[in-house]
Backbone:
């Protein structure tokens, strides 16, 4: 016997109503998980403890930042490029890459007017307590100061920008601001090798006042990674941004 059309429609409505709360739950859980890895400000970034772009200033300013150094093969050349263009930037350095060979490079970075903050080589801090995170960041900053004679900028960039509530709280407890980057303002290159020919036009086109750009002068697994693309990109990007009227600043003035 066929069910009446009204009964079938009512059954579908009831079935849909039963699944609706589960659908909302799945969406909420998915959004919460994604908030830890989103490469832009999202649910975890509603406080002043994180920053993904700098406040607008009277003069339009771009903030170049560099991750995963110090790299003994690339960072000195990058510093040469910045000096030639008379530009200051912010370097987020990995504590374990601070060695007898690289300490002079980081010291030079400070002495040439750049800011130096703390970076991390893995996602391990995502799962650590605020106390652990605070201690790890403070120890890295203290070692930077001890080895170079200069105080670290009170900023922290987690690996790949991945963050968690305990991590953000731990950084804040240590007196550090968690720093990301502006929308699409990083040196990815979908499915192709990173190169200046692709990166320079895109980064120039999307730039707006207060943007934080991130480029990698190192690699979280290879302390001597080939970063010629980064050096060439910066050398070509700075003049293009200057043509558009931008000045350059550091996250910590």
Residues:
């Amino acid at each position: 016997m066929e069910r009446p059309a009204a009964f079938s429609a009512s059954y579908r409505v009831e079935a849909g109503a039963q699944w609706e709360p589960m659908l909302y739950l799945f969406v909420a859980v998915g959004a919460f998980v994604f908030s830890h890895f989103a490469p832009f400000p999202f649910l975890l970034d509603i406080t002043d403890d994180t920053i993904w772009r700098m406040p607008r200033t009277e003069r339009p300013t771009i903030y170049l930042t560099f991750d995963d150094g110090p790299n003994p093969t690339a960072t000195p050349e990058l510093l040469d490029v910045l000096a030639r263009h008379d530009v200051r930037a912010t370097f987020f350095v990995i504590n374990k890459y601070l060695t007898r060979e690289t300490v002079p490079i980081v010291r030079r970075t400070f002495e040439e007017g750049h800011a130096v903050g703390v970076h991390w080589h893995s996602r391990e801090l995502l799962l650590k307590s605020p106390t652990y995170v605070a201690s790890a960041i403070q120890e890295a900053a203290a070692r930077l100061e001890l080895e170079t004679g200069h105080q670290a900028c009170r900023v922290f960039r987690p690996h790949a920008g991945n963050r968690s509530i305990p991590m953000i709280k731990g950084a804040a407890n240590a007196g550090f601001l968690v720093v990301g980057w502006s929308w699409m303002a990083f040196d990815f290159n979908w499915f192709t090798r990173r190169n200046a020919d692709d990166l320079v036009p895109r980064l120039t086109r999307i730039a707006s006042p207060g943007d934080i750009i991130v480029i990698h002068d190192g690699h979280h697994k290879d302390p001597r990674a080939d970063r010629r693309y980064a050096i060439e990109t910066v050398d070509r990007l700075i003049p293009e941004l200057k043509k558009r009227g931008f000045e350059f600043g550091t996250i910590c003035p």
